[in-house]
Write a structure and sequence with these properties.
By secondary structure, this protein is of the alpha+beta class. It has 2 domains: about 190 residues, no CATH class; about 70 residues, Alpha-Beta Plaits, CATH 3.30.70. The chain is built from 11 helices and 4 strands. Helix 2 packs antiparallel against helix 6 and helix 3 packs antiparallel against helix 4. It starts with a helix and ends in a 14-residue tail after the last strand.
């Protein structure tokens, strides 16, 4: 990543743009798909929705706003002011857009509605999480626990939503709760996809008798470096050099062609990697 690109990706304009678009998309699907079908979204908005369904008090958007107040106090104390400001912007925009959105999305089938809702909500949430903030609510707690105790964000959501949906089973129709769980599951998958989009990398290990030739071709044609790892073959006890290359999906086929053009007997091993930080790749996100 060039310095110019890094500056743009970490700029206020880029982060606010991601937050605005992601918040708008979330507000639309929450109001026009989730609420008409009485879905229970995950997280704090799910609690707000559950309170609204049972009491009619305020509306889920305003309840969500109130529930976020202690979350942002925690974010201010344990993360950073910048994180709180960006997360506050996301939470405020979701609340405002929720009040302003007035059109309808007609989907009669509950399962279809759950799939559409989960997919679009995940895309919107993923866009916000690609910024230096969060969607507010449970995201704040998840980030704190991840930074302080290395507890996975997914585990935090799983435990919280498990409790939420258990409570929902006691007060709502079982079919409705199951459909809501499907929507949340789809949303979780989509968030992961949105976060990894354009950032997924492949980790390739190359065992060859011509490591120098392959390394030179990789640097010339793919414009990326390689790491040479010393190794010893277990059968002949012969010293070898294993090349380690980190590339994106688009470059994978070109790397394969380079390897087997140079050495048709090479061993080519590829693994998926979710995130690569440092050097010429993505910068570590500092909230």
């Amino acid at each position: 990543m060039t310095d110019e690109k890094r500056k743009f990706v970490y700029s206020i304009f880029w982060n606010c743009g991601l937050i605005t678009l992601g918040s708008l998309l979330q507000a639309i699907v929450l109001k026009e798909i989730a609420i008409p079908h009485n879905f229970v979204p995950g997280g704090l908005f799910g609690i707000g929705s559950l309170i609204f369904y049972k009491t009619g008090f305020l509306d889920p958007g305003l309840i969500y706003l109130l529930l976020n107040i202690p979350m942002f106090i925690l974010g201010y104390l344990f993360i950073s002011r910048r994180f709180v400001w960006y997360s506050g912007l996301a939470m405020g925009l979701i609340t405002i857009f929720y009040q302003l959105v007035q059109f309808q999305i007609h989907i009669e089938n509950q399962l279809y509605a759950a799939l559409v809702f989960g997919s679009l909500l995940g895309i919107g949430a993923g866009m916000v999480l690609r910024s230096l903030g969060s969607n507010g609510g449970l995201d704040v707690v998840a980030v704190i626990l991840n930074q302080k105790y290395n507890i996975g964000v997914g585990k935090v959501y799983f435990v919280f939503n498990l409790i939420l949906f258990t409570a929902s089973f006691a007060s709502l129709d079982n079919d409705l709760v199951i459909v809501s769980m499907i929507a949340v599951f789809v949303s979780s998958l989509t968030v992961d996809y949105a976060l990894s989009l354009f950032n997924q990398r492949k980790l390739a290990f190359i065992v060859s008798e011509k490591p120098d030739e392959i390394a030179n071709q990789v640097m010339i044609h793919l414009k990326t470096g390689t790491t040479m790892l010393p190794a010893i073959g277990s059968y002949h006890k012969k010293e070898k050099t294993v090349l380690m290359v980190v590339i994106n999906n688009i470059q994978l086929k070109r790397l394969e062609e380079i390897v087997f053009t140079a050495d048709e007997f090479a061993l080519f091993i590829v693994e998926n990697t979710f995130n690569v930080l440092g050097s010429t790749f993505s910068r570590r996100k500092i909230y």
